Amino acid sequence: MNRYLLFVAILIGFFCQSLSAQPRPALEKPNVIIFFLDDSGYGDFSYNGNPTIHTPHIDRMSREGVNFTQFYVSTAACSASRYALLTGRYPLRSGLGSWVIGPSAKSHIHPKEITIAEGLKAVGYKTGMFGKWHLGNPNKKNNMSTEALPLAHGFDTWVGTNVSHDYGNAKLLKSDPEGNNPVKGYSEIARNLPSDKKASTSLTGRYTQAAVQFIKKNKKQPFFAYIPHNQPHLALFAHEEFTGKSRRGLLGDVMAEIDHSVGEVLKTLKEESLDKNTLVIFTSDNGPWLVRENKKLHIGYAFPFRDGKGCASWEGGFRVPGIFYWPGTLKAKREQEPASTLDLLPTLFKICGAQVPKDRSLDGRDIRSLLSSDLKGEPLNAPFKFIYSYSRNEPAAIRMGAWKLHIKLGSQLRNNYGFQASRDKPLLFQVEQDLREVYDRAKEEPDRVQQMLKDLLKIEAQMKAEGTYWRK
Ligand SMILES: [Ca+2]
Known about the structure:
The chain is an alpha/beta fold. The chain has two domains: 348 residues, Alkaline Phosphatase, subunit A; 82 residues, Arylsulfatase, C-terminal domain. It is 27% helix and 17% strand. The strands form three sheets. It has a ten-stranded mixed β-sheet with strand order 7-6-5-4-8-1-9-11-2-12. Strands 14-15-16-17 form a four-stranded antiparallel β-sheet, with helices on one face. Helix 5 runs parallel beside helix 6. It is globular and about 90 Å long. The N and C termini lie far apart (78 Å). The model has no long low-confidence stretch (mean pLDDT 95). The structure holds calcium ion.
Protein backbone atom coordinates (compact mmCIF):
# COMPACT_ATOMS: atom_id res chain seq x y z
CA MET A 1 0.00 0.00 0.00
CA ASN A 2 2.75 2.37 0.98
CA ARG A 3 4.54 1.59 -2.26
CA TYR A 4 1.29 2.20 -4.14
CA LEU A 5 0.82 5.60 -2.46
CA LEU A 6 4.40 6.51 -3.23
CA PHE A 7 3.85 5.61 -6.88
CA VAL A 8 0.69 7.80 -7.02
CA ALA A 9 2.54 10.65 -5.33
CA ILE A 10 5.36 10.42 -7.88
CA LEU A 11 2.81 10.42 -10.73
CA ILE A 12 1.07 13.50 -9.31
CA GLY A 13 4.44 15.15 -8.89
CA PHE A 14 5.32 14.52 -12.54
CA PHE A 15 1.93 15.79 -13.64
CA CYS A 16 2.25 19.03 -11.67
CA GLN A 17 5.79 19.57 -12.87
CA SER A 18 4.82 19.13 -16.50
CA LEU A 19 1.91 21.54 -15.98
CA SER A 20 4.16 24.19 -14.50
CA ALA A 21 6.69 23.67 -17.31
CA GLN A 22 4.02 24.34 -19.93
CA PRO A 23 4.62 27.68 -21.59
CA ARG A 24 1.75 30.16 -21.66
CA PRO A 25 -0.46 29.97 -24.73
CA ALA A 26 1.24 31.89 -27.54
CA LEU A 27 -1.21 34.78 -27.55
CA GLU A 28 -1.48 35.23 -23.79
CA LYS A 29 0.82 38.09 -22.86
CA PRO A 30 3.61 37.04 -25.21
CA ASN A 31 7.13 38.12 -24.34
CA VAL A 32 8.52 40.91 -26.50
CA ILE A 33 12.13 41.51 -27.55
CA ILE A 34 13.20 44.49 -29.66
CA PHE A 35 16.66 44.63 -31.22
CA PHE A 36 17.43 48.23 -32.26
CA LEU A 37 20.79 48.72 -33.96
CA ASP A 38 22.53 52.08 -34.18
CA ASP A 39 23.29 53.46 -37.68
CA SER A 40 22.85 50.24 -39.54
CA GLY A 41 21.90 50.75 -43.18
CA TYR A 42 19.24 48.95 -45.18
CA GLY A 43 21.96 47.29 -47.26
CA ASP A 44 24.22 46.21 -44.38
CA PHE A 45 22.71 42.70 -44.17
CA SER A 46 23.20 39.62 -46.26
CA TYR A 47 19.41 39.14 -46.50
CA ASN A 48 19.20 42.50 -48.27
CA GLY A 49 21.94 41.58 -50.71
CA ASN A 50 25.18 42.73 -49.08
CA PRO A 51 27.82 40.48 -50.70
CA THR A 52 30.53 40.76 -48.01
CA ILE A 53 28.59 41.07 -44.74
CA HIS A 54 27.29 37.82 -43.29
CA THR A 55 24.25 37.89 -40.98
CA PRO A 56 22.85 34.33 -40.97
CA HIS A 57 20.65 34.57 -37.85
CA ILE A 58 19.06 37.85 -38.94
CA ASP A 59 18.62 36.39 -42.43
CA ARG A 60 16.78 33.41 -40.96
CA MET A 61 14.45 35.73 -39.02
CA SER A 62 13.72 37.59 -42.26
CA ARG A 63 12.95 34.33 -44.09
CA GLU A 64 10.85 32.72 -41.38
CA GLY A 65 9.13 35.84 -40.01
CA VAL A 66 7.31 38.84 -41.45
CA ASN A 67 9.88 40.89 -43.34
CA PHE A 68 8.73 44.47 -44.00
CA THR A 69 10.51 45.68 -47.12
CA GLN A 70 9.38 49.30 -46.62
CA PHE A 71 10.07 49.90 -42.94
CA TYR A 72 10.82 53.39 -41.59
CA VAL A 73 12.20 55.33 -38.68
CA SER A 74 10.79 58.82 -38.25
CA THR A 75 14.10 60.66 -38.20
CA ALA A 76 17.66 59.96 -39.35
CA ALA A 77 19.40 60.43 -35.97
CA CYS A 78 19.67 58.72 -32.60
CA SER A 79 17.72 60.47 -29.82
CA ALA A 80 14.57 61.42 -31.68
CA SER A 81 14.43 58.02 -33.37
CA ARG A 82 14.55 56.31 -29.95
CA TYR A 83 11.83 58.64 -28.66
CA ALA A 84 9.59 57.76 -31.62
CA LEU A 85 10.07 54.01 -31.16
CA LEU A 86 9.46 54.04 -27.40
CA THR A 87 6.42 56.38 -27.47
CA GLY A 88 4.81 55.87 -30.91
CA ARG A 89 4.93 59.66 -31.43
CA TYR A 90 6.62 61.97 -33.91
CA PRO A 91 9.84 63.62 -32.65
CA LEU A 92 8.31 67.13 -32.63
CA ARG A 93 6.00 66.03 -29.80
CA SER A 94 9.03 65.23 -27.59
CA GLY A 95 10.01 68.82 -26.82
CA LEU A 96 13.66 67.69 -27.04
CA GLY A 97 14.26 70.46 -29.57
CA SER A 98 16.88 68.48 -31.45
CA TRP A 99 17.24 65.04 -32.96
CA VAL A 100 20.39 64.38 -30.88
CA ILE A 101 20.80 65.37 -27.23
CA GLY A 102 24.35 65.29 -25.94
CA PRO A 103 25.47 64.42 -22.40
CA SER A 104 25.39 68.06 -21.27
CA ALA A 105 21.94 68.87 -22.66
CA LYS A 106 19.26 69.83 -20.16
CA SER A 107 16.59 67.97 -22.15
CA HIS A 108 15.43 64.43 -21.59
CA ILE A 109 12.34 62.39 -22.38
CA HIS A 110 9.51 63.78 -20.25
CA PRO A 111 8.19 61.56 -17.43
CA LYS A 112 4.61 62.02 -18.66
CA GLU A 113 5.42 60.23 -21.90
CA ILE A 114 4.17 56.64 -21.93
CA THR A 115 6.82 54.27 -23.27
CA ILE A 116 6.40 50.70 -24.49
CA ALA A 117 8.15 49.61 -21.28
CA GLU A 118 5.69 51.52 -19.06
CA GLY A 119 2.63 50.18 -20.84
CA LEU A 120 3.83 46.58 -20.63
CA LYS A 121 5.04 46.92 -17.03
CA ALA A 122 1.55 48.12 -16.07
CA VAL A 123 0.10 44.77 -17.20
CA GLY A 124 2.64 42.62 -15.36
CA TYR A 125 5.67 42.46 -17.64
CA LYS A 126 9.22 42.50 -16.30
CA THR A 127 11.12 45.07 -18.34
CA GLY A 128 14.84 45.07 -19.10
CA MET A 129 17.00 47.30 -21.24
CA PHE A 130 20.40 46.27 -22.58
CA GLY A 131 22.09 49.00 -24.58
CA LYS A 132 22.24 52.68 -25.44
CA TRP A 133 19.72 55.10 -23.91
CA HIS A 134 20.44 58.54 -25.45
CA LEU A 135 17.22 60.13 -24.19
CA GLY A 136 18.77 62.18 -21.40
CA ASN A 137 21.64 62.37 -18.97
CA PRO A 138 21.69 63.69 -15.39
CA ASN A 139 23.81 66.84 -15.34
CA LYS A 140 24.06 70.29 -13.77
CA LYS A 141 21.57 71.81 -16.20
CA ASN A 142 18.79 69.42 -15.16
CA ASN A 143 19.87 69.31 -11.49
CA MET A 144 21.10 65.72 -11.81
CA SER A 145 17.58 64.57 -12.53
CA THR A 146 16.90 60.84 -12.10
CA GLU A 147 14.14 61.35 -14.65
CA ALA A 148 16.79 61.58 -17.34
CA LEU A 149 17.58 57.84 -17.19
CA PRO A 150 15.68 54.62 -18.07
CA LEU A 151 14.38 53.50 -14.63
CA ALA A 152 12.08 56.55 -14.64
CA HIS A 153 10.59 55.43 -17.96
CA GLY A 154 9.36 51.91 -17.29
CA PHE A 155 12.52 49.80 -17.17
CA ASP A 156 13.11 47.55 -14.13
CA THR A 157 16.71 46.94 -15.02
CA TRP A 158 19.33 48.42 -17.38
CA VAL A 159 22.90 48.14 -18.47
CA GLY A 160 24.16 50.41 -21.21
CA THR A 161 25.63 53.71 -22.25
CA ASN A 162 23.98 57.01 -21.39
CA VAL A 163 24.81 58.46 -24.85
CA SER A 164 26.61 57.25 -27.98
CA HIS A 165 29.98 55.71 -27.15
CA ASP A 166 31.84 58.25 -29.32
CA TYR A 167 31.27 61.13 -26.88
CA GLY A 168 34.57 61.67 -25.04
CA ASN A 169 32.83 61.47 -21.66
CA ALA A 170 30.32 58.73 -22.52
CA LYS A 171 29.59 56.39 -19.61
CA LEU A 172 28.69 52.76 -19.26
CA LEU A 173 26.13 52.52 -16.46
CA LYS A 174 23.90 49.95 -14.85
CA SER A 175 20.86 50.04 -12.64
CA ASP A 176 21.83 49.25 -9.06
CA PRO A 177 19.47 49.54 -6.06
CA GLU A 178 22.48 50.32 -3.82
CA GLY A 179 24.17 52.67 -6.28
CA ASN A 180 24.38 56.44 -6.32
CA ASN A 181 26.51 57.23 -9.36
CA PRO A 182 25.76 59.42 -11.26
CA VAL A 183 22.42 59.44 -9.41
CA LYS A 184 20.50 57.21 -7.02
CA GLY A 185 19.66 53.80 -8.44
CA TYR A 186 22.67 53.51 -10.74
CA SER A 187 26.34 52.70 -10.68
CA GLU A 188 29.13 53.32 -13.16
CA ILE A 189 30.94 50.48 -14.91
CA ALA A 190 33.21 52.61 -17.12
CA ARG A 191 33.68 56.21 -18.23
CA ASN A 192 35.29 58.12 -21.11
CA LEU A 193 34.47 55.24 -23.42
CA PRO A 194 36.39 56.24 -26.54
CA SER A 195 39.62 55.99 -24.57
CA ASP A 196 38.60 52.75 -22.83
CA LYS A 197 38.97 50.17 -25.55
CA LYS A 198 38.31 47.27 -23.20
CA ALA A 199 34.94 48.67 -22.15
CA SER A 200 34.02 49.66 -25.70
CA THR A 201 34.81 46.24 -27.19
CA SER A 202 32.78 44.62 -24.39
CA LEU A 203 29.48 46.33 -25.22
CA THR A 204 27.83 43.98 -27.71
CA GLY A 205 28.78 40.84 -25.74
CA ARG A 206 27.87 42.42 -22.42
CA TYR A 207 24.36 43.34 -23.60
CA THR A 208 23.87 39.90 -25.10
CA GLN A 209 24.85 38.10 -21.89
CA ALA A 210 22.73 40.40 -19.75
CA ALA A 211 19.71 39.91 -22.04
CA VAL A 212 20.14 36.12 -21.96
CA GLN A 213 20.33 36.14 -18.14
CA PHE A 214 17.25 38.38 -17.96
CA ILE A 215 15.29 35.99 -20.20
CA LYS A 216 16.28 32.96 -18.12
CA LYS A 217 15.51 34.71 -14.85
CA ASN A 218 12.07 35.86 -15.97
CA LYS A 219 11.01 32.88 -18.04
CA LYS A 220 7.95 32.16 -15.89
CA GLN A 221 6.36 35.57 -16.38
CA PRO A 222 5.85 37.92 -19.31
CA PHE A 223 8.88 40.04 -20.10
CA PHE A 224 9.97 42.83 -22.41
CA ALA A 225 13.65 43.07 -23.40
CA TYR A 226 14.77 46.17 -25.29
CA ILE A 227 18.22 45.61 -26.83
CA PRO A 228 19.47 48.83 -28.45
CA HIS A 229 23.03 47.84 -29.40
CA ASN A 230 25.59 50.69 -29.62
CA GLN A 231 27.05 49.26 -32.82
CA PRO A 232 27.59 49.79 -35.74
CA HIS A 233 27.65 53.51 -34.78
CA LEU A 234 31.24 54.79 -35.09
CA ALA A 235 33.71 54.14 -33.59
CA LEU A 236 33.42 50.50 -34.55
CA PHE A 237 34.34 47.98 -31.86
CA ALA A 238 34.13 44.19 -32.05
CA HIS A 239 35.23 41.65 -29.47
CA GLU A 240 38.53 39.97 -30.42
CA GLU A 241 36.68 36.70 -31.07
CA PHE A 242 35.07 38.42 -34.08
CA THR A 243 37.88 40.78 -35.14
CA GLY A 244 39.70 40.26 -38.42
CA LYS A 245 37.28 37.59 -39.62
CA SER A 246 35.00 39.33 -42.10
CA ARG A 247 35.87 39.95 -45.72
CA ARG A 248 34.11 43.33 -45.26
CA GLY A 249 36.64 44.41 -42.61
CA LEU A 250 35.75 45.82 -39.21
CA LEU A 251 32.17 46.74 -40.14
CA GLY A 252 31.64 43.12 -41.18
CA ASP A 253 33.17 41.92 -37.89
CA VAL A 254 30.85 44.22 -35.95
CA MET A 255 27.81 42.99 -37.88
CA ALA A 256 28.88 39.38 -37.29
CA GLU A 257 28.98 40.01 -33.54
CA ILE A 258 25.54 41.62 -33.64
CA ASP A 259 24.25 38.69 -35.65
CA HIS A 260 25.76 36.34 -33.06
CA SER A 261 23.92 38.33 -30.37
CA VAL A 262 20.62 37.75 -32.17
CA GLY A 263 21.51 34.06 -32.52
CA GLU A 264 22.25 33.71 -28.79
CA VAL A 265 18.92 35.28 -27.84
CA LEU A 266 16.97 33.06 -30.28
CA LYS A 267 18.85 29.99 -29.01
CA THR A 268 17.99 30.87 -25.40
CA LEU A 269 14.31 31.26 -26.27
CA LYS A 270 14.32 27.82 -27.87
CA GLU A 271 16.20 26.16 -25.00
CA GLU A 272 13.83 27.66 -22.45
CA SER A 273 10.74 26.69 -24.52
CA LEU A 274 9.87 30.36 -24.89
CA ASP A 275 10.20 30.65 -28.66
CA LYS A 276 6.49 30.07 -29.36
CA ASN A 277 5.32 32.82 -27.05
CA THR A 278 7.92 35.47 -27.76
CA LEU A 279 7.69 38.09 -30.48
CA VAL A 280 11.15 39.25 -31.58
CA ILE A 281 11.43 42.48 -33.57
CA PHE A 282 14.59 43.54 -35.37
CA THR A 283 15.27 47.05 -36.69
CA SER A 284 17.76 49.97 -36.66
CA ASP A 285 17.55 53.60 -35.51
CA ASN A 286 18.58 55.27 -38.80
CA GLY A 287 20.57 54.81 -41.99
CA PRO A 288 24.35 54.37 -42.22
CA TRP A 289 27.34 56.70 -42.02
CA LEU A 290 28.47 57.31 -45.58
CA VAL A 291 31.52 59.47 -45.00
CA ARG A 292 33.29 60.64 -41.93
CA GLU A 293 36.68 62.21 -41.97
CA ASN A 294 39.13 59.52 -43.02
CA LYS A 295 37.04 56.59 -41.90
CA LYS A 296 35.63 55.85 -45.31
CA LEU A 297 36.47 52.18 -44.99
CA HIS A 298 33.94 51.94 -42.19
CA ILE A 299 31.02 53.26 -44.19
CA GLY A 300 27.72 51.44 -44.24
CA TYR A 301 25.42 50.86 -47.12
CA ALA A 302 21.88 52.15 -47.71
CA PHE A 303 21.45 50.52 -51.11
CA PRO A 304 19.11 50.76 -53.01
CA PHE A 305 18.29 54.09 -51.35
CA ARG A 306 19.93 57.47 -51.50
CA ASP A 307 21.94 59.08 -48.65
CA GLY A 308 22.14 57.91 -45.02
CA LYS A 309 22.18 58.94 -41.39
CA GLY A 310 21.75 62.63 -40.68
CA CYS A 311 19.90 63.59 -43.83
CA ALA A 312 16.64 65.54 -43.87
CA SER A 313 14.42 63.20 -45.79
CA TRP A 314 16.23 61.03 -48.37
CA GLU A 315 15.12 57.40 -48.12
CA GLY A 316 18.57 56.07 -47.15
CA GLY A 317 18.39 57.82 -43.77
CA PHE A 318 14.92 56.44 -42.97
CA ARG A 319 14.65 52.93 -44.44
CA VAL A 320 15.72 50.23 -42.03
CA PRO A 321 15.20 46.50 -41.50
CA GLY A 322 11.75 45.66 -40.11
CA ILE A 323 11.52 41.99 -39.12
CA PHE A 324 8.85 40.46 -36.86
CA TYR A 325 9.66 36.90 -35.83
CA TRP A 326 7.31 34.71 -33.82
CA PRO A 327 7.43 30.99 -34.68
CA GLY A 328 4.00 29.36 -34.76
CA THR A 329 2.06 32.63 -34.78
CA LEU A 330 3.57 34.60 -37.67
CA LYS A 331 3.88 32.85 -41.01
CA ALA A 332 6.81 33.66 -43.27
CA LYS A 333 5.88 36.68 -45.39
CA ARG A 334 7.56 39.43 -47.37
CA GLU A 335 5.31 42.37 -46.48
CA GLN A 336 5.40 45.27 -48.92
CA GLU A 337 2.95 47.57 -47.13
CA PRO A 338 5.00 50.38 -45.51
CA ALA A 339 5.19 50.51 -41.72
CA SER A 340 7.40 52.26 -39.16
CA THR A 341 8.81 52.12 -35.65
CA LEU A 342 5.91 54.41 -34.65
CA ASP A 343 3.65 51.39 -35.14
CA LEU A 344 5.36 49.29 -32.48
CA LEU A 345 3.70 50.82 -29.41
CA PRO A 346 0.07 50.62 -30.57
CA THR A 347 0.59 47.16 -32.08
CA LEU A 348 2.40 45.71 -29.07
CA PHE A 349 -0.08 47.20 -26.60
CA LYS A 350 -2.94 45.52 -28.49
CA ILE A 351 -1.11 42.18 -28.67
CA CYS A 352 -0.07 42.26 -25.00
CA GLY A 353 -3.30 43.61 -23.53
CA ALA A 354 -1.86 46.96 -22.45
CA GLN A 355 -3.87 50.18 -22.44
CA VAL A 356 -3.33 52.29 -25.57
CA PRO A 357 -3.12 55.89 -24.27
CA LYS A 358 -6.08 58.03 -25.27
CA ASP A 359 -5.05 61.33 -23.68
CA ARG A 360 -2.39 62.19 -26.27
CA SER A 361 -1.77 61.95 -30.00
CA LEU A 362 -0.21 58.70 -31.17
CA ASP A 363 1.22 58.66 -34.68
CA GLY A 364 1.65 54.93 -35.29
CA ARG A 365 -0.85 52.42 -36.62
CA ASP A 366 -1.94 49.12 -35.12
CA ILE A 367 -0.44 46.81 -37.76
CA ARG A 368 -1.60 43.47 -36.32
CA SER A 369 -3.58 42.82 -39.51
CA LEU A 370 -0.31 42.84 -41.49
CA LEU A 371 1.32 40.33 -39.13
CA SER A 372 -1.22 37.51 -38.77
CA SER A 373 -4.99 37.03 -38.91
CA ASP A 374 -4.65 35.17 -35.56
CA LEU A 375 -3.95 38.53 -33.92
CA LYS A 376 -7.42 39.80 -34.91
CA GLY A 377 -6.29 43.31 -35.81
CA GLU A 378 -8.59 45.78 -37.55
CA PRO A 379 -7.82 46.05 -41.27
CA LEU A 380 -5.89 49.19 -42.19
CA ASN A 381 -8.42 51.48 -43.80
CA ALA A 382 -6.22 54.25 -45.15
CA PRO A 383 -3.06 54.49 -47.23
CA PHE A 384 0.24 54.86 -45.38
CA LYS A 385 0.83 58.45 -44.28
CA PHE A 386 4.16 59.32 -42.72
CA ILE A 387 6.15 62.44 -41.77
CA TYR A 388 9.95 62.55 -42.13
CA SER A 389 11.50 64.72 -39.39
CA TYR A 390 14.75 66.68 -39.59
CA SER A 391 17.28 68.07 -37.09
CA ARG A 392 14.93 70.37 -35.13
CA ASN A 393 12.37 67.55 -35.18
CA GLU A 394 10.25 69.46 -37.70
CA PRO A 395 8.77 67.91 -40.84
CA ALA A 396 10.97 67.81 -43.95
CA ALA A 397 8.83 65.48 -46.09
CA ILE A 398 5.63 63.48 -46.16
CA ARG A 399 4.84 60.11 -47.68
CA MET A 400 1.26 59.25 -48.71
CA GLY A 401 0.75 55.87 -50.34
CA ALA A 402 3.50 55.46 -52.92
CA TRP A 403 4.24 59.20 -53.18
CA LYS A 404 6.66 61.39 -51.28
CA LEU A 405 6.85 65.18 -51.09
CA HIS A 406 10.03 66.91 -49.85
CA ILE A 407 9.76 70.48 -48.52
CA LYS A 408 13.29 70.68 -47.13
CA LEU A 409 16.48 68.90 -48.10
CA GLY A 410 19.60 67.99 -46.19
CA SER A 411 22.20 65.43 -47.11
CA GLN A 412 25.05 63.71 -45.30
CA LEU A 413 26.96 64.10 -48.58
CA ARG A 414 26.00 67.80 -48.61
CA ASN A 415 25.09 67.87 -52.29
CA ASN A 416 21.40 66.88 -52.39
CA TYR A 417 22.12 65.38 -55.81
CA GLY A 418 21.47 68.69 -57.58
CA PHE A 419 17.94 69.09 -56.16
CA GLN A 420 16.39 71.90 -54.16
CA ALA A 421 13.12 71.85 -52.24
CA SER A 422 11.05 74.32 -50.23
CA ARG A 423 7.47 74.79 -49.09
CA ASP A 424 6.91 76.98 -52.14
CA LYS A 425 8.60 74.59 -54.49
CA PRO A 426 8.45 71.02 -53.19
CA LEU A 427 9.84 67.91 -54.85
CA LEU A 428 7.65 64.91 -55.62
CA PHE A 429 8.81 61.31 -56.09
CA GLN A 430 6.97 58.03 -56.60
CA VAL A 431 9.15 56.09 -54.19
CA GLU A 432 7.82 52.61 -54.94
CA GLN A 433 8.96 52.93 -58.54
CA ASP A 434 11.77 55.45 -58.22
CA LEU A 435 13.69 53.95 -55.28
CA ARG A 436 16.62 56.35 -55.56
CA GLU A 437 14.45 59.50 -55.87
CA VAL A 438 15.80 60.58 -59.21
CA TYR A 439 12.73 61.77 -61.17
CA ASP A 440 10.90 64.81 -59.79
CA ARG A 441 7.22 64.50 -60.74
CA ALA A 442 5.95 67.75 -59.16
CA LYS A 443 5.21 69.47 -62.48
CA GLU A 444 3.12 66.57 -63.80
CA GLU A 445 1.15 66.17 -60.57
CA PRO A 446 0.22 69.67 -59.32
CA ASP A 447 -2.99 68.54 -57.57
CA ARG A 448 -1.16 65.77 -55.71
CA VAL A 449 1.52 68.25 -54.65
CA GLN A 450 -1.10 70.63 -53.24
CA GLN A 451 -2.96 67.86 -51.41
CA MET A 452 0.21 66.41 -49.86
CA LEU A 453 1.49 69.83 -48.86
CA LYS A 454 -1.86 70.59 -47.24
CA ASP A 455 -1.71 67.31 -45.29
CA LEU A 456 1.86 67.94 -44.16
CA LEU A 457 1.01 71.46 -42.96
CA LYS A 458 -2.08 70.18 -41.18
CA ILE A 459 -0.11 67.54 -39.25
CA GLU A 460 2.59 70.09 -38.40
CA ALA A 461 -0.01 72.60 -37.19
CA GLN A 462 -1.72 69.95 -35.04
CA MET A 463 1.62 69.01 -33.42
CA LYS A 464 2.47 72.63 -32.70
CA ALA A 465 -1.01 73.36 -31.33
CA GLU A 466 -0.99 70.28 -29.05
CA GLY A 467 2.50 71.19 -27.81
CA THR A 468 4.74 69.01 -25.70
CA TYR A 469 4.85 68.00 -22.04
CA TRP A 470 7.72 70.44 -21.62
CA ARG A 471 5.90 73.44 -22.97
CA LYS A 472 2.22 73.87 -23.62
CA1 LIG B 1 21.85 56.35 -34.74
